[in-house]
Amino acid sequence: MRNLKLSNGYEIPQMGIGVFMIKDHEECKQSVLNALKIGYRHIDTAQVYKNEKAVGEAIKESRIPREDIFLTTKLWPTNFGYDKAKKAIQNSLDALQVDYIDLMLLHRPYEDYIGAWKTMEEEVGEGKIRSIGISNFNISRVQKILDVAKIKPVVNQVECHPYEQQKELRTFLEKNDILMEAWYPLGHGNKKLLSNPVITELAKKYGKSNVQIILHWHIQIGNIVFPKSSNPEHIRSNFAIFDFELSKEDMAKIASIDKRKPYFNIPEWVQKIMLNFSS
Asked: What is the pLDDT at residue 279?
């Protein structure tokens, strides 16, 4: 495992386990328990995933000291606004059965996200949250946060994979000492990406699977990544990516296949309508 240092001094494991769309309580709990047993120490969940309780139970049952686990959750836009945000943050703490959250993100840049940011800053001061960040923010919206922030975001979690490498956003984030976290790190399991000839060639060269090549590419460019899986073998295989390095030439080959093609490509006006259906 490799750790990265956040701008506020805390360290974050660069590889984690994601639980997006694992709605079954027992399946989610077992996935997290399996990951923790293998050696994962970073868990990424969200209020809208509706599985914070399962994650909390897994942490408790693992008997791993709380301080050894890095826990991320996200505040959903329907919970933005001072009073609602305060209540929602406490609800997450209660569901997760923890005294503090290592990292809380604004899940999407809608509604009163500036007000929600100020609420999270206040919760940092009260010790309920250690680090705060954002998710799905483009450059202009990141800048709006930076313009008012007393505490800078430490990460921006966005869709990122070899077909959508987010190069312009990455440059902006690096200038502002904000790390990039990648969701859909495998392009939502897209078969064309997973079987891309460049990825396949490198998998053969390094004796790794195509998935492991992509995940290690994320690690090597500095992304924080948390592939979702409930399959124990996949969880184990995803973790086995720290024993090799891609050459500069091979990293350039992967850089060349960038299509700037997101798989989550829903118009913003539709996404706003979806907010209430998700909450």
From this structure: 61
